[in-house]
Amino acid sequence: MELEGEKPKYGEPRKYDPTFKGPIYNRGCTDIVCCILFIICILGYVAVGILAWSQGDPRKVIYPTDSRGQFCGQAGTPLETKPLLFYFNIMKCASPMVLLEFQCPTTQMCVEKCPDKFLTLLKAYTNKEDFKYYKNFCKEGLEGLILSSGLCPAMLTPSKPFTRRCFPALDQKKGGEITVGNNSKFDDGEGNIRDAKDLVAGVKNATVVIEARQVVMKIFEDYTQSWYWILIGLVIAMLISLLFIVLLRFLAGIMVWVMIVMVILVIGYGIFHCSMEYVSLKSEAGSNVTLKDLGFQTDFSVYLHIRQTWLAFIIILAIVEVVIILLLIFLRNRILIAIALIKEASRAIGYVMSALFYPLFTFALLSIVIAYWAVTAVFLSTSNQPIYKVFNETACDHSRKICEPANFSTSSMKAECPDSKCLFAFYGGETVYHKYLIGLQFYNVFLFFWCANFVTALGQMTLAGAFASYYWAFVKPDDMPAFPIFSSLGRSLRYHTGSLAFGSLILSIIQIIRVLLEYIDHKLQGTQNKCTKFLLCCLKCCFWCLEKFIKFINRNAYIMVAIYGKNFCTSAKDAFFLLMRNMIRVAVLDKVTDFLLFLGKLLIVGLVGIFAFFFFSGRVKAFENTAPNLHYYWVPILTVVVGSYLIAHGFFSVYAMCVDTLFLCFCEDLERNDGSLARPYYMSASLHDILSENKAVEETEEPTQSSPHQPDDQDQKDQDGFHRCFSEHVAETMCLIDYPFRSDVLNLLPITLFTVKAFKRSLQCFHH
């Protein structure tokens, strides 16, 4: 209990103000410094994009190019009849940098056919026929054959074309011996006899890049074959989402219970279907292979022929089903109150119907941000240029200097060093642009996060301002603006661009730190240092929690900015203190509503996902001739599922934002007014009934609870007990980080028991 004269722990409650009529219109610009910084960064982002588009060439990722940057087999060029790419020394492709730069550090040239026999440069020089054949794999302008000149490869090995590139024709005999051209050893052209297995590393790294490109091309082809069906699936998801929102407007109570029952039924059907697949694979050969032994496969359909995959699906869906049922049982009284709050939100949306279509504007802006980031990233990654340097046999002052092969024969360097050659050295660049290319990629990713978070924040503040206008209108809709959404959007952009940029900047910094932690974790996967792994795991967990907390604070801060027009920090503090003064209501009312809305999203995704699975997989005979032929049928299914979730999230986010805004306004209304004729509540009679029901439930569980304005000792003990219980629960949950996970699916059993225990502990906290 607070002492007399002592400042309240969570700030002073709002005082009655007869002049306050909702969102303040006479306001000024906030967080101007951050607004200026955001504009400067956006201008810099545009400059990076222009620079990348002028330097990069996305065709380098798809088509084979020689060391001069020419595309093999391109029509209308001298290389039209040479569609295959040949590597002078494939063993240099064993460098790990190949996977980062998409190029091997060796001379590459376009050829008509791949070599089909062993031959060294020295041996070919002694035989006219071999020399004639060897010249097909040498650079033009061949005069004297000197190995160090770099005009010809040191050796040729039997190769086969793969994705328009020549790779050694490696084979593995029964004993595990690696051969190339039926030989286990070969002459590398420099007087060394080497094993065929020495070629494996180079071929493996090169083929990883090529296979990645091939997978991308196959996915692209699948999209070209199924894009209209994907659009139909997304349109269906949009119509179902819109139908649910409209029905919620008029039949909120019935629709919520329908959603709950259908989610349980859909997940139950998923368990049944996975069980049938698991049983049907029992007699099939190879179905008992473990996921660990199978490893990563680019063709995901392979996993569907493994029993362990379906067992994992069964366990995951069963856990989700049990958790949802337990939550519904223990929170049944709160769900009834949350349904009433959703009804009130439906009434608010009825006065602001344009809010239902605002997510389309957010989708459009996010699509622009994502497209700009993706295109800029591709152009930046293909900005490397072939670098040529001077190579010579004798000492020369110009050795290893950069040169231009086009005019090298007439240059001063050639005149001073007659035996020098201008040869390919590496891919990259030594200009200021190429030196800071990694920094530009990092800047591209960071601005992507910042812009995406800014667009999301703009939507949240716009909706909050519109719904706050509804709540604080004493006579609805006469006291509301004619166009609440447009009025709120105008205020947000005109006065609070800086606050939006400030909040999204904080969130973006945390997200980029998480990306860096994931990158470091990926780099340290080969190490066995358990201490390092534990620290990384703790850091990733902490920053994940911090990101969720910042999103929660930002969301409520934007609501306060939309209402009062103050800067971001002040609004965040006011929102946080207001929520802490109403902690019990936040935990048991507002979050239960979020849970019900999440079930709605889950239902839409489940319905559309099941339909997409049966359609694209061809498991229904009625769709066998209609469904397109695809390389990976999971590509359109995954796209439809993710797209359906985003669409459902967009529509239901309007409800979520409405509930959050009404909740904060409701708490403010309780502190400002007392329901008397002099200080009447702005809340509707139905919302006041929700308060009465909630208060009755709290009094049933906590008989000595008093007014929300002046908490007594019991109130303070309840809130302290809730905080202490919740802290202990978080500490228990953190212990799961150090759990020794294994790849065995049966290991999910102890995790399941831990999850049930965690939820039981959470419910105890909420009932505290």
UniProtKB/TrEMBL annotation:
Record field: compositional bias (Basic and acidic residues): 710-719
A Pfam family of this chain: Choline_transpo
GO cellular component: mitochondrial outer membrane; plasma membrane
Coarse class of the protein's main subcellular location: membrane
Gene label: SLC44A2
Organism this protein belongs to: Oncorhynchus kisutch
Residues covered by region (Disordered): 698-719
Lipid bilayer topology: Multi-pass membrane protein
One GO molecular-function entry: antiporter activity
Function: Choline transporter.
Record field: catalytic activity: ethanolamine(out) + n H(+)(in) = ethanolamine(in) + n H(+)(out); choline(out) + n H(+)(in) = choline(in) + n H(+)(out)
Similarity-based family: Belongs to the CTL (choline transporter-like) family.
Location of the protein in the cell: Cell membrane; Mitochondrion outer membrane
Keywords assigned: Antiport, Cell membrane, Glycoprotein, Membrane, Mitochondrion, Mitochondrion outer membrane, Phosphoprotein, Transmembrane, Transmembrane helix, Transport
Ranges annotated as spanning the membrane: 30-53, 227-248, 254-272, 310-331, 351-380, 445-473, 493-517, 595-618, 630-648
InterPro entries: Choline_transptr-like (IPR007603)
UniProt-recorded name of the protein: Choline transporter-like protein
